[in-house]
């Protein structure tokens, strides 16, 4: 019997221009659905877990399409509430070479912003659950979402369900101050925290939003992660380290701190087909291995290889299998035709 | 020198499923821009008039795309204000045969709802203008839009510019009571009113929203139109009469009342490629001929033939030329290849 | 809690030429998945039932895609066995006007032909099931399939689960003699039989494969259905009556015999977008209403209206909602835009 | 061994807007190759004859593509000369319903206008040939083409090869006077002439270019055809009779005069997918049966049924098989799915 | 009020194979419009200038489409004459990796070759103009074009309008001798000349058509440019320096000589989406900054960055904004997603 | 008169996901036809030889499409037998970057496996033939194919026709032991053998299936090739050496041994559009030059350059011209636009 896991967040309609066209050139959009937390839910289902996604979607054909889109990839949608007026949208212009991708958000007043604790039966949702995952984007969507996530975290903690959180600070949605005020109580005692709070660093120069891997040396990471671990009683703190050569080419590795050691993964350099969801692929790869009980170093390597493969796949989702990720992780980057 | 005309309203992003797919089947949308008033502005430009469209659009690439989309077909966009957060959207699932087309609106909080009288220089806009057109949809979009349209109508009337209004009552946007309260002062003294108010009929059984041509006989129309004409001091009252055989086949004719006579147009039966914008094509065909100074009976016939041709064209816009419409009007419905 | 229903059969990869191209013109295929029984399973899920589909598919990415394709539309795929070498394929050239559609089957040696009774836990599958549906196509696929369907029917009957069968005789797969030999024991005592056996008619001129509605008058139908009902102890016998005007236009009605009366449905004439799956849409509409406990006459009307709407939808599946079918059934065939 | 036939003429690049878009809407063109005579050559190859097409095409990748396009459908391209600067082009906007299709020609100065008698070895080309076909379009393309066609006809007549000509008068290319001056010597003694000369009629009111089937009664046809037959010593004179209901729906029949009797074919009414090449499909169906030695009445029926099926196929070519045409001719217009 | 600028030249229909297909594989073409001078006009409009394009186009739907295509991107088309028979065409097969792109021109006898000085009111066109741009391609199109461009340059010089010329020598259109004979009088006294004449170099080894940046050292450039500057009284002479690594990867920088110094820009290495129009993007970026009054060194850097971004955009046009170019110019080549 | 060459083997329907989508994402397939030997036949026709392809295909529209697909590119299809039930299929998911391409074969029981010596007139087929090519894939398809290839080789040897064989060992189809048992008699005395048998190496560590260019040094190659040459009396033994950097980037060179010397070609590094058919492009380039009588070193260089260009072309076929390959071979890898 597959392990039951629960992820909570928003799923958006993604409208991207085809063939790397600019917005002003395009007379059609590729239409799929995705979002930081939905991407994790799909990847976990794809790895074979019994993966439930919790959200609120309008009771119209676009809401139906969003449900179908993740159901297709194996996510259980039984706990999705229906109501509100609209599916949040993000428009994506895929970049290439020195031209960056552009995202235009149109997510205000989406159904999840009308989410209500009473729409859900938490006892039912969290029954037999072996992992709960959420991100810092959901509470940025307003008071209803904050109350909802607080309730969910409270119940999960009460039931001693392992919890992971991807901080995912988005400066377009709220200030760093609001962010920390809401997030700090939520991350208390979680098992895995992806990202860190800039406020735990004494010197205020390095924040979340303007971080690149060149900014921090290993010693500094250990100091920050160690302080954060203690302060919030978190088991693992982890982050990816990305090098942006161009919109078509990136380098990627990751680190995880377990209290004793800062483990560093292998680093990959690769061409990019679709960059969106790369971080979520890392999160889901890492979590999958931790849920299976493997140690954090192996989970880290699996997460990074998963993320790299995601970059070669169109759409938000990492549709790689465990076998494919393992093959990449074992060093086969040759791309030979597999017959 | 072409005559200058001004149309005011919202332009929406239209996202329609390709190949008559249902919403839940589609993984892409055809993306164009349209809306009742923009459709009129484009058709008038296409007939050769110096056609200006006034609206408010966000200062982002989607706003740019909307501007470009009508500029391409010759509309002058100099008076479009930029600001607000979003382009209104409507999703369209094209029906066929006995399956009706479906529209899902997602237009709340669009940029035009933030429109402000002070964003515009009415003296400049209405300078040398020979016709002004608006519709009953715009004031349904909220207080800002009502104030804006009131100001525009006030200036146009002061400058003695001929005015046309397409009542376009949409029950999803406001109640009939709100509608009449706002619209009645606006239609006082206009030259052309498309549609009629149900309240002018003594017997309350026939309203705008549930009207079909079978419901009214000629005598009744004359009574209603005549009463309305006198009450509001309107020169012409007109409406199309549609027969819905299926999503693929319709019948269409129209009537106009000039105070003396109720003129009835020829009736056409035809297959449908895209029904959206059919009413706007009628309005613009009729207005074009009235602006050119032709008599209302000829204008009516031209409007109906224009509308019929529109139904054979994908998208919201009537991209037929005057010559093509005239040929249809003269009886050539053979569809022979033109070499 | 939705009622649990089980359908059993093959799901095929359907490769159809786009834009009504002929096979020899086409350089791409639209690729979806469907099949007589899968189409019923999807429609029942779409109506809100807890619909399980039982089959065998290869453990490769095409097998995954077939699973995903029905999961997307809500079908439960927990009981699908994986194994064998290939997904059966049918190539479809969509006809139009006087040019008929053409199907080229390439389904020999597909995974379902390797199906094995021991791959399945029937006690688990039929637990709490309120309806079981199968068709005459599955046993035509060979000995393994015959044994499998015999076992399934045996268990379902033992558990007193209502059963429906769509005879679906396909002369390309087996002879009428083989067909009757296998099917007669299977249909003993079922609740609903769609189609009839030509052998129950004394005069041998009218068989299943060459039937058109013009061939039989009402009296004759009553005689055949009544004889069949008694002989095999079947509750309802039903069939659609189709009039083929062209590949683009059909007439459709249906009849059902309940032992007392031969009920005839309304007849529809309509244009066709995709004819494949029209019969399965009738079956699933009829079954849905019977499962819900409505009487056979209402079920018949719903089934026919469901089938008509299916013809307006691309692909094998009827993706109409109950509300849409009911609206058509109530006489709204106008195709007006629904806003 | 298949019979060798030779057709001579121009093959053009056809650029048509997809999805019935108008020219001003389209950002892509479907690109195929066709032309009155090439269409006949392809259909004859498709029926199994050893069909050679003679023309001149530029020695560039577009010329290569034109060669490949007919080679794909079985035409022998050994006698195509390469040279000149350009492939002629025609732009096609497909109409629908009351909106007619539009053709914009861009064929001036194409390679065939530079054709030279010395580019070809007529002894080799006409060796063992059992039929030669040309049309009145080729000599309209200028002096080189006239000289070329004169030479070809001269050699074919000397070798006693049966000849057919499709008059195909195009008023955009030359005057009726020039047309008759050039064509009359060419049609002397041919076996089949499709169309007739208006000058053979005493009363000058009815010409080729403005003919519709309503204009002539049977008696009049017999008079004209009989006069023409005698004057030019032609075996069969034939023409299609088309009724244009709309761009989507036509009626079609044909007549042939053999000196004794005016045979009239069955008449079909049908929906249209692509009207271009409908006349050429008639010609090739008729010629195919005459080449096979069948009588003119059967050939006529086959030609009309071939033409009707062509109207259901995209592109210029009739890709129907003999069996399909025969089935239609035998009355099966039901469009039932063929499995 | 935006500054008015005028560009003069031909706009061609560009038919390119999709998905990097070879000509012989493709059954469709992407259809856009472009050309050296039109590309400059669009870029200048895109930067916010009041940009007019002057040309002649046929009065048919393809001419309409060409007008619409640039109007969409903001170009003013008031001064475009309509007449002649055809839009010039160029067919493009996009290369990749070691396979070069191929262009097949089909532009002979296009409408611009029938251009006539009397079609235009130069007083009106050049009223309030602050910059005039043309290229060496237009006069290569024949006597009418030479006379036209001579008249335009004469009027512009008389009105003391700053002038820029892109030499754009095309060996397929005329000989270097004819080129110099026509161009030398035209470039006398212009403000900006892009490219140089090989005849100004004493040693005849380096010509325009076979130049690569490796062929010339800095000293040699200064000598050539200095001589040319004096001889023709030109303010700035400039050129891009391209390194062709493959069809997918190039290096690009540029130089400008102002009489005192040879300024060299930054050099970029980048992957290519569409190489066509790269030189025109440089020209328009440089001109835009000069028109705004910035110094030539800044204009040069802006021009090169504009050109680099163009290479990442499909089609002939540089649709980058000033802000995007500035960001690249400031060193951000990371391609990070912009949210 | 072009030289006649004969190639024998299977042609498969290739169904590939568009836009590098994964199988589970794709709702359409690009559909072309190819296969190791058909790819050689097309390339030889494309170089101008009189190239015949011998195979068996079903007598249905998919068989017709396969014939048409190679006929289009100039292959003579006169000797293709029709019969059997199905066209073999291979599904292709194109990889990119670190994600490899995946092939799913569905070729069992295809028509060629039913091939029969008596279906063919070998005297007619091999009349005037100047080269015969086959591969080790065909005899892997079963007893019928073995018997057929044995007969073909026997006749070709009797007629002293030069023979080439591409060993193409596929471990999915048969064991290495079966492979050697069948192939050794067939390769006796052939002119060209592409690949080598692992059994000729004393040390058993290096086999065909697990070879990469890093495994063998030059000395070792000479030893193996020399032994093989003598043992089987083969004129030339050759192989490509591939370096797989990723699915998007490869290195390629080749070696040939003529009994005296091991010639090594230039090595290319390049980006990949479509890797399938790269080996067949090498074979056909090499064979073409040998058939033309050029020496083996030049043939080797031409073969490698042909293969490199193939990698930039979508589909299985090398559609490069001799001139294009020669230009690459001469060092022009710049990818500059060719006008």
TrEMBL record, chains A, B, C, D, E, F:
<keyword id="KW-0808">Transferase</keyword>
<comment type="similarity">
    <text>Belongs to the carbohydrate kinase PfkB family.</text>
</comment>
<dbReference type="InterPro" id="IPR052700">
    <property type="entry name" value="Carb_kinase_PfkB-like"/>
</dbReference>
<dbReference type="InterPro" id="IPR029056">
    <property type="entry name" value="Ribokinase-like"/>
</dbReference>
<dbReference type="InterPro" id="IPR011611">
    <property type="entry name" value="PfkB_dom"/>
</dbReference>
<dbReference type="GO" id="GO:0016301">
    <property type="term" value="F:kinase activity"/>
</dbReference>
<keyword id="KW-0418">Kinase</keyword>
<feature type="domain" description="Carbohydrate kinase PfkB">
    <location>
        <begin position="3"/>
        <end position="312"/>
    </location>
</feature>
<dbReference type="Pfam" id="PF00294">
    <property type="entry name" value="PfkB"/>
</dbReference>
<protein>
    <submittedName>
        <fullName>2-dehydro-3-deoxygluconokinase</fullName>
    </submittedName>
</protein>
